[in-house]
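Got a spare moment? Tell me how you read both lines of this record:
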Amino acid sequence: MFLRAPEAHSRSFVKAVSWRVLGSIDTFVISYFITGKLVFAASIASVETFTKIMLFYFHEQAWARVRWGRSDQVLAAEDAKSETAHAPAATPAASAEQAGALVVEPA
């Protein structure tokens, strides 16, 4: 399973920049093939680079706040399951997290 712990803001930012460099090269090449003009291709790739870096960064930070599927949550759920296996019968009411509901941490 490919689960990971929350990341530092600096790591998310560096990942965003490296991904955008690769993506912008792709955008430049495609734009050049479509327009046939280097100036247009460079303009499109330049604008796209900055907008996509910011979008990716905020997207990563938003997902960092979602607890669903994170390794620390999965481990806690596994621990809870092993504890309930040896505990008396559980009550019918389950918490939102135990039921698998999507729980978002406040900002």
In short: Residues 3 and 87 are 28 Å apart (CA to CA). Residues 9-64 form one domain. The two ends are 27 Å apart (CA to CA). Helices lie at 9-35, 38-64, 71-85.
